[in-house]
Amino acid sequence: MSVDVERHGKTLLVTLNRPDALNALDLEHLDSLRGVLCELRDDPSLLTAVVTGSGRAFCVGTDLKDVPPPTASFAQGYFSPRKESIDAGVYVRALTISSLNLGKPLIAAVNGYAIGGGFELALAADLRVASETASFGMPEARWASVPGVGGVSYLLRSMPRAVAMKLILTGDRVEAADALRLGLVSDVHDGAVLVDRALELAARIEANGPLAIQGLKLVSDRTEEMSLSQSIELEQLLWGLLRDTDDRLEGRRAFVERREPQYEGR
User: Fold this and answer.
1) What is the pTM of this model?
2) Catalytic residue annotation
3) Are residues 70 and 156 both part of a single domain?
């Protein structure tokens, strides 16, 4: 398997490339994916990323056949540093995107099966677009387990509670058309153009003020943890933070002059 990376302007296209195993992730490639996302976070010239899979699957989660047995108690492994924790058997930490604090929009282009940890990977993205053949499922309960990287928490925030609980407790799947109807994805496209459409969406984001996009990402990530009044206050503070930036002034000039703005992220 490989985690392939292409650069498209300010967008990183990340492709999980192990089609013979439906893009199941072993520990080596979980670490590679994490490294790519850290590159997105730390590179100021990148603003967004699109994650997709090769073949007929987005990702079916961790490849349990390649996960070594635990070498320590859960408590010992859990409180160890991340690398030692994963090596000791707490492999779910290798796929926990929330701990990365990306600060930049992540788009999941779900081209087929998004199952288990693969569904959790898609749920951790800010935007999800799907092919007509996409299928989402969280089957952990069937195998006497629970999602380990935020699946329940994300899903309950992404669709009506009753529908989310049905998927969580039964392990049933939801297909692309129903995912669109329920708001789990924003768009459904023909599989042949899915990645192109995702990159077009990323380009529309890129065209906006980069500081504004990062501010919107910040408030979007924090709002569910706050009261309404606290969230509005954060919005006002971010508005004030951006008010006197060069980009905000450029945006106003471009509006008056009826031209496309030229933002520099300052």
Assistant:
1) 0.91
2) 120, 140
3) yes
